[in-house]
Amino acid sequence: MSCPYHSDNKPSNYRAMEKDIHTDFKDDMSYGDYLNLQQVLNAQNPLSDQHDEMLFIIIHQASELWLKLAGHELYEAIENIKSGNFGHAFKVISRVKQILSQLTQSWGILSTLTPVDYLKFRDALGHSSGFQSYGYRKIEFLLGNKNTELLKVHESNPDVHQELSDILHKPSLYEEALKALKQQGLPIDECVLNRDFSQPYEANQSVLDAWIVVYQNADKYFHLYELAEKLIDIEDSFQQWRFKHMYTVQRIIGNKMGTGGSSGVEFLKKALDISFFPELFELRTHL
């Protein structure tokens, strides 16, 4: 039995084109033009004929875009704290937290890649590895996890190497927060505020004491108290991302060596012991 269709009797799930919707983009900028979608959507070039390699590429490309945005926001947060604009700093730090949560969720999609299917194209990756991620390294440096040795991985790209080197030698988000403590009259050792910022940060008693005062007098130092909690939010989200990354890698390759030459899962586990803001966690023991 046929089902006649009458143009003057549209089905209930039909949505007509509104007359004012623009359709001619010969001389006008379209959505795709604005977002450079032609370049973005043509940037996936699998090196094998395996179906799941497209998943692997897109997950990592999307992650790099989120990392770029997180770096953009952290730059702003640092400038906000330097200028005393804590309200806007809180806004962008909260955004970074949500970006990290989004990144964490993406590992769940990648975990649908089975070990057998990954091995079908893993050799095609050569020595390329997430360890070489410029965006990830930038986030770590901006948050305060400095390590000069890690610049070696980026020597083949002079522009990237220079930007990371610049970030390495400048105060991190946390170090700008410590300057804010000093500006509010809280005693911070000069060796903390005036040091070689390219070196890893080490916990300091004067910093711990200052944060304890802030937490014990939250009404008086509310903007510093709120800043501390925002920083904890970032570390919490970052560590969840690190853990999910490690666990996803373990699920897919077990204890194999990483493509970039690291020990793989064991190397990723070590990152879980690194805190960006050590005093902010230690103070909880002393309250």
Structure description:
Keywords: Dioxygenase, Heme, Iron, Metal-binding, Oxidoreductase, Tryptophan catabolism. Heme-dependent dioxygenase that catalyzes the oxidative cleavage of the L-tryptophan (L-Trp) pyrrole ring and converts L-tryptophan to N-formyl-L-kynurenine. Catalyzes the oxidative cleavage of the indole moiety. This is Tryptophan 2,3-dioxygenase. Pathway: Amino-acid degradation; L-tryptophan degradation via kynurenine pathway; L-kynurenine from L-tryptophan: step 1/2. The chain is built from 13 helices and no strands. The chain has a single domain (52-285), classed as Methane Monooxygenase Hydroxylase, Chain G, domain 1 (Up-down Bundle), CATH 1.20.58. The termini are far apart. By secondary structure, the chain is an all-alpha fold. α3 runs parallel beside α8, α8 runs antiparallel to α11 and α11 (222-253) runs antiparallel to α12 (265-271). The model has no long low-confidence stretch (mean pLDDT 93).
